[in-house]
Amino acid sequence: MKANENIDEIVGDVDPEVHLTYSDVSEPPESPKGSYLALLSLGAIGVVYGDIGTSPLYAIRECFHGPHAISATEANVLGVLSLIFWALVIIISIKYLVFVLRADNHGEGGILSLAALATPIKPSGRTERWLLIALGIFGASLLYGDGVITPAISILGAMEGLSVATPTLSPFVMPITIAILVGLFLIQKRGTAGIGKIFGPFTLVWFMVIGLLGAAQIWHFPHILVAVSPYYGVQFFIDNGWHGFIILGSVFLVVTGGEALYADMGHFGRMPIRVAWFTVALPALLLNYFGQGALLLEDPATAENPFYNLAPTWAMYPLIALATGAAIIASQAIISGAFSLTRQAVQLGFLPRLKIQHTSSREIGQIYLPAVNWALMIGCIALVIGFRTSSNLAAAYGIAVTSTMVITTILFYVVARELWNWRAAPTLALCSIFVVIDLAFFGANIIKLADGGWFPLVLATAIFTVMLTWKKGRSILQTRISEETQPLEDFLYEFEHKAIHRVPGTAVFMNGNASKTPPALIRNLIHNKVLHEKVIFLTVKTRQIPYVSPTERYICEPLGNGFTRIKVYYGYMEDPDIPRELMSISESEFRFDASTATYFLGRETVISTSKYSTMSRWRERLFSLLLKNARSATSFFSIPPNRVVELGEQIEI
Hints:
The protein is of the alpha/beta class. The protein has 2 domains: 38-406 and 439-452, Amino acid/polyamine transporter I (Up-down Bundle); 487-652, no CATH class. The chain contains 24 helices and 9 strands. The protein has helices at 34-47, 50-53, 59-64, 74-99, 111-118, 130-159, 161-165, 173-186, 199-220, 230-251, 258-263, 265-268, 270-298, 306-309, 316-347, 370-387, 390-418, 424-446, 454-484, 488-496, 519-528, 578-584, 617-629, 633-636; strands at residues 11-14, 357-358, 367-368, 501-510, 530-542, 554-560, 563-570, 597-607, 644-652. The strands form 2 sheets. Strands 1, 4, 5, 6, 7, 8 and 9 form a 7-stranded mixed sheet that branches. The longest helix is centred in the middle third of the chain and has 32 residues, at 316-347. It is elongated, with a radius of gyration of 27 Å.
């Protein structure tokens, strides 16, 4: 296996000196209040609840008009509505809004943030629980499946309203959907800071409209509200048996935005997300679902598309336009989430460096990853062409999210017990309830494996394999370099007894292990036989928190004879800028002149041999491919290319 650059000489893995304790998982600053809370809640309505807010387009329909549909009798309608009501209450309102949102990693949420809390890296490195780490990685991998399916099913579901308005437009549904998807992904490189300001107000209008549509139908049939009683849900399973269990796979579509809700916590904080849910999103969703149920009792033939049939004829096209806008906003939130998730994975060492562009000078979360963007676009278009209808896509939708929800519950239990010191019995009882419900939904969705459920699992498995291979390959590379490098203390001792010519200027040697001598320094001495007057041994570490405060950004340690050891720390949500950090160091004895600095980076050729091989041949080839296509260290660390010297060496692994 050959590759052209080794990153572990340049940047260390997740900082082994950082052991998270409960004090690290602090409460956020004082909760927002008044008008500021209202403003944040409005933003949360657009970004956080865009995904779950478009579920009415297809959720009820899949229960009563699909490959596993049941007849729209009064008992069945009331039973399904009861299941929907309690799914929203237990999974979203209680599990996520009350409990999971407590698990913030310095304000950030999401499966990788939760995994970072559940598996703190100990100083020895041997105490890492790789099973939990693997669960977190697989959960993150599953979310990419959600990122591909959500834009496809949301926009396709909105466009299918054209078929309800007039059947003559049915042939245009798929082409228009593809055109909207292409346009959506093309605008990503321009950023969404401008149009993002209308997400909240637009989605608020969407929730108001769907709530009013449902309320109007409930007014004509108020008896539908008895479905709030869990009795009807229990009776539904008694009456329908196995078929009733299968319907759970369609019922689950109403809660598919739960994981996205948690992942977006860092943008708004837990309080605005809770306020937006209980005051706007939940009431509007329940009104619309119960309104669709009332319509089905009045006219079972509307099961083909009960959402659009709620609207009067004159409102059909405006509703289609509104639904399309809501679907685009939901898709945008998922796409932005995929960008953020990928950056976290890169910084935590689970993916190779990728090109990251900032699309806003004011919003730190506004980023664009070209490789991820185009991969998502191709995947979405392929799904639309392959599945053709949102009903077919619904079969593929639930498996990824249900699997992630199970993993979230397991990791939450670990965090609650070990970081928060919750008592074992009540914590186990609470999480057992969540796991049973999660597994029930997972079981109902896994039945649809052959109907399309295989897609997110295959995609997640592929991404999971890439992440583990990259992590393993980096670990092997780090070990080999460490074995072949001299302890820094030994080098400094030998330097005292050698006559090495010093030249003016500053040399910065990037070093993955602060206790070792940078290989690039040794190669520089061998080839050039000189050292600069000032030499900096620079180690960059990623901590298991999203952001590192400026006061904890670096540690500067003078070593004498012009040598300085510096450790720079970043969070997994931050982008490194090494020249900026070096110029910001305020120690009186340290002065960094960027105009005279030269950065020495290692450029290794990695060779696979039977002597050291610890991965299968196909994984070695995969690691080689990933390494070759990783973003250059010069670009990743924002180092001026004209100040870089690369020194090559072959490394056997």
